Predict the structure.
Amino acid sequence: MLVLKPLRKVHKFCSNLFDRLPGCTKELLMRTCYQQQQNRHFGQPVHETHPHLMGMDEVTPGITRAEYQQRRLRLATMVQEAKTQQSIKHSIVLIPSATKVIMTNDIPYTFRQNTDFLYMSGFQEPDSMLVILISDCDFQAVLFVPKHDADRELWDGPRSGDIKALHLTGVSESYNSDELEKFLYNYCKNHKEYAVWYNTNKPIKSQHNAHSIVDEFLKQNNKTKFVQNPLPLIEQMRLIKSTAEIKLMTQTTQMASKAFIEVMRASKPNVNESFLYAKMDYECRIRGAEFLAYPPVVAGGDRANVIHYTRNNCLINDGELVLMDAGCEYHGYTSDITRTWPVSGKFTKAQRLLYECVLEVQEALLGLCTPQYSLADLYKHMFDLLTPRLLLMNVIPSEVSKDEHMLTKLLRELCPHDVGHYLGMDVHDTASISKRIKLQPGMVVTIEPGLYVKSSNTVVPAQFRGIGIRIEDNVLITDGGPVVLTRDCPKHPDHIETLMASS
Ligand SMILES: [Mn+2]
């Protein structure tokens, strides 16, 4: 983590200048050199510095300034509509960014921006705050950002600062973060009555100074009639993807699909799960992904029956299946795919029987991804489709099927998780949105039925024990029917066997 090299380089450069400029302190000169260097940069990729990533009008890759402004206008309109019902004239919406979280002395965890803040501003620096002021017929977006700090920027890289943040994001005004307190104090002083929209369920570990400032703001004034959570409104917007977002979702899902093909090709008996994990990470990153969207599950044999197995440190034996649940994050948009394949390249008879059962159910469910159904409806359909097949294959013995209680218990054991979830900027996206609402064009969902027979399961016939299978695709809902975004990721057993035989 140390940056001795650039420091030496600058020191040498400054020393040369220093000899020619007597009277100037070395420290001042070094700072000036750095300041000039930093001024050419932003705290995030922009078109000028990253033309390979960004278009001219884009704040983040793929999303334009106009789209971000449109989002803020929509949120202001939704708040305004809610406000009319309460007959309050003014509203203030406060959306904090994420803050840097420290792992151990001076070492940070990988930074990930607060999704709602990113969706509304496109600003990628920590310790910032978006404030939206709404009055009768007007709204203003004000961004508070970390101020320039030569010492910090020497170590952490350039910050945009308030002026460049204003031009970059297209907000109405921008200030340094340390002006937030005064700003809120003045707002309180100048307004008789107002509603505050702020998510008080902030992350437990957050050291973000803005949280305590807002807490103080909420405590100190008694004019605030309402403190409401803006999250459900923002998630309602995030649920339906725009054209630009659909393009990013298409890219992130294709990227992960192609990476899966390479991981399948690299599989062989006795391979370590950690090797397949690293291969997935590599294949996603070389295609442009920033990182994997979540700790992937790479589970050989019976370990696939631990739904959230992430230790990924065992050898996968010849004849075992490997279940991999992985996806990537590309410019803020995630993919979430699961495939299960034989590590040796050939399914056994029992494995293929169970696999084809899950695949049939999954494909039937994909066909139901239309505005007629909700995710909750599809969950019910999953069991309606699975149960007769399991009975037919004798995976569920006939004596169990006669006892409704035992049958339900066994089905829950064999398939303990949900059929899918909304997908977008977050993996488990827009979690405040009910799964009972009907699917709508512009939504992206996962469809991921699974079948898990633990080796310790003594009810199911012995040949099926120790097998865990899940097949998960990402689906875009459209007026013209479901579009399987992850269709390039092989899942038919013959296709998988052919692919692996040719590797
Ligand atoms: Mn999933």
Summary: Confidence is low (pLDDT under 50) at residues 1-20.
